[in-house]
Specification:
Blueprint: H1 2-25, H2 28-64, H3 68-99, H4 121-126, H5 133-139, H6 142-159, H7 164-185, H8 188-202, H9 205-208, H10 212-236, H11 242-259, H12 262-275, H13 280-293, H14 296-312, H15 319-335, H16 342-353, H17 361-368, H18 370-395
Helix pairs in contact: 1-8, 1-11, 2-6, 2-7, 2-8, 2-12, 2-13, 3-10, 3-13, 3-14, 3-15, 3-18, 8-11, 10-14, 10-18, 11-12, 11-18, 12-13, 12-18, 13-18, 14-15, 14-16, 14-18, 15-16
The structure holds aspartic acid.
């Protein structure tokens, strides 16, 4: 078992290294036409299982918690951890961008701000409740799927004996999905190769260099958040050494980096949390929730980019405006879907909250390097989910300590 795990991590790492090398030598057109489809095929396979997996896993997780009181406690802790670390993440992003100001030299002029009408914060929260759960499932609207699954789990608990058959069926569905996912994941090293090489081939130096400051700041702040905040949380609360934490999380981290999708990384995160000792009810509840609402990397990116865009237009953001950014980013991260590019859409909402243009030259520059930034932010997003899962499991005294 130990050998198999190690093999997957190493194989995925080799896939990443070879993918980067291939991206450097392959012509962009070749990589996009002939290599990328294999990555897309793998993502489609994962997406095929992810909605039933999340649904069944959360129903089973909720039932496994035993009673509504435990659910409330666990849910409360989870949401608190997610919100707190996300607020911390934006703050780190903003501090980094204040320390290394970028974009002033651009000197763009701001025309009248006409921001597209996005979804308001109130709507984001109202939309969590699906008026049609079947549609939520078929649309793959994760937040709604999660809400419905928790309600169904609570319903099963309240019904007791008579609802047992439904619990068993969902349990079987979850098992089947885990098994299928396991089979699909054996292809992960190839998928990582096929996902990464086109990104490297397409993003040549001419695209990256002008925005190097933004890229380095986002990557630096992301690394800082992972190393300091997550190591601190898992070390301080769960008593797991950072080295063990990151080693076990490695396949998930590399896959998130390659796919830029928290949702597609769920199966990898589940395995990582399992290896770190989080029991099934906790991980099947906390992880899919995190992949959907916990976006620390996205929050860092939004903080840095908001400041970059303000600088590009020569706008000096006041302290209260920066606090406004912290609040909007934290709330916006809940509504951000765990798919590539979602964070950029939510950035427009953050910009609107402080009167910055969400369309135009500066945003165009940010969008040009979105995939590169997305890889870093997704990596942080899912690492935060795994960290939260072990921290919550430890605080519930449910962390298995077999490998410590
Ligand atoms: N791609 C990110 C994720 O899946 C979301 C984002 O675009 O920031 O976590």
């Amino acid at each position: 078992m130990q050998k198999k795990k190690l093999n997957l991590s190493i194989k995925v790492l080799i896939g990443l290294a070879l993918g980067i090398l291939a991206g450097l030598v392959l012509p962009a057109e070749f990589a996009v036409t002939y290599v990328k489809p294999f990555g897309t095929l793998f993502l489609n396979l994962i997406k095929m299982v992810v909605v039933p997996l999340v649904f069944a896993s959360i129903v089973v997780g909720t039932c496994g918690l035993g009673d509504a009181k435990a659910l409330g406690r666990l849910g409360g802790k989870t949401i608190l951890f997610y919100l707190f670390t996300t607020a911390l993440a934006v703050t780190i992003g903003l501090v980094a961008a204040n320390l290394f100001p970028m974009g002033r030299e651009l000197g763009f002029t701001m025309e009248a701000v006409t921001n597209p009408a996005g979804t308001s914060i109130v709507d984001t929260f109202l939309n969590i409740v699906p008026t049609n759960p079947i549609k939520a499932l078929s649309d793959g609207n994760m937040l709604q799927v999660i809400f419905f699954a928790i309600m169904l789990g609570v319903g099963i608990l309240l019904c007791g004996e008579r609802a047992k058959p439904l619990e068993s069926v969902t349990d079987a569905l979850a098992e089947v999905m885990y098994t299928l996912t396991g089979a699909i994941m054996t292809l992960a090293p190839f998928a990582v190769f096929a996902l990464v090489s086109p990104v490297v081939a397409v993003n040549g130096p001419e695209i990256l260099l002008p925005m190097l400051g933004v890229i380095l700041t986002v990557y630096g702040a992301c690394l800082f958040h992972m190393v300091v905040v997550y190591s601190g949380a898992v070390g301080g609360i769960a008593h797991i050494s950072p080295i063990r934490f990151f080693t076990e999380a490695a396949p998930a981290i590399i896959f998130a980096f390659s796919s830029a999708s928290s949702a597609a990384t769920i199966p990898f995160s589940m395995e990582a949390a399992d290896r770190l000792g989080a029991p099934q009810p906790v991980r099947s509840f906390v992880l899919p929730l995190g992949a959907t609402i916990n976006m620390d990397g996205t929050a860092i990116y939004q903080g840095v980019c908001a400041l970059f865009i303000a600088n590009a237009y020569g706008v000096q953001l006041t302290l209260s405006q920066q606090i406004m950014i912290i609040i909007t980013c934290t709330l916006a991260s809940i509504g951000t879907a765990g798919v590539p590019g979602a964070g950029a859409v939510m950035l427009t909402m953050v910009l609107a909250s402080v009167g910055l243009p969400a369309e135009g030259q500066a945003m165009g520059l940010v969008l040009g390097i979105d995939r590169i930034l997305d890889m870093a932010r997704t990596t942080v997003n899912i690492t935060g989910d795994i960290a939260c899962t072990v921290v919550v499991a430890a605080s519930e005294k449910q962390l298995k300590r077999t490998e410590n």
